[in-house]
Amino acid sequence: MSIDLLEGSPAAPPRDNGELVFSEPWQARAFGLAADLVGSGHFTWDEFREHLIEAISGWEHTSGSGDAAEPWDYYRCWLTALEHAVGERGLLSSDAVADRAAAYASRPAGHDH
Hints:
Blueprint: E1 15-16, E2 19-20, H1 25-39, H2 45-62, H3 74-88, H4 94-105
Antiparallel strand pairs: 1-2
Helix pairs in contact: 1-3, 2-3
């Protein structure tokens, strides 16, 4: 299955002239990681799409309104969905994901990989 399966759903990735749009390097890496995990048979696009729709709905419910709303970021929702899919399949524990995220967040500026 290809990423085209997500087209026409709330989970469709942003595109410009038909090309996927990434504004930061981590977005492309998160996208590629999900695609690789699907390609490796760890989960399907259908399963991932369900997690992504849940993440988008969660953002809409908690951050999509009000003065203190978190700004819309499609790939933050993508990352949340990826974390849930990886956790659901037992590929990494939620503690391992949190530890790795904290380690990356504490790195000095300029080390975005």
